């Protein structure tokens, strides 16, 4: 059984589809009979039949009352398919013309926006140990030349995360230098990592104290990790800064501390 919706897919209204299905099973029908068979409101049926006739899907026959007859399905479907194809072609042309107009109008706006710098585009603020650990590992994996680290409390990453973080660049042959606060250098969790990491190329030195946790990647991106000063349960915030000037300034501080630091005894 053909449903009216199937004909509607070819461009007929639901009432037109219902009217054609009502007509096709009979030689001819009056408007009242079409309305009854097609469940079409009586006040609408005349307009519906006029629409069908305009599309070439039915013919009216003079009489009292006037009657309507469906054209053969082969002809009707050919007419519908042709009209639908023409409508789609028109829509395609209209869409392409609209796209061209919008492209022309929007391109200068896009170009103007690219020329303006977002003052916060170079900074990312991260909260919570999990988010910080994920971003730190991503930065370590993306490094291309070298990593500089300063390691001090609070320890945000777990021992496993610290190992994965350091092995990511070391495993690719990158230069990796780390300054470690003397108070944490010999902690059991970390001290067990140093021999293996130093064997892979880590250069490790120890200083009496470090004011801040820092990682610098390729002299371009810096990760600064801090414990929030508010009381209560410890929480952590990190800032990723994509700025060569900041990286250069922090490297000066790193090199000053590096020159005065002592090589880690276990890393020899």
UniProtKB/TrEMBL annotation:
Ranges of residues in domain Transcription regulator TrmB N-terminal: 7-73
Domain of life: Bacteria
Pfam family, one: TrmB
InterPro entries: TrmB-like, Tscrpt_reg_TrmB_N, WH-like_DNA-bd_sf
Transmembrane segments: none
Protein known as: Transcription regulator TrmB N-terminal domain-containing protein
Organism, scientific name: Solidesulfovibrio magneticus (strain ATCC 700980 / DSM 13731 / RS-1) (Desulfovibrio magneticus)
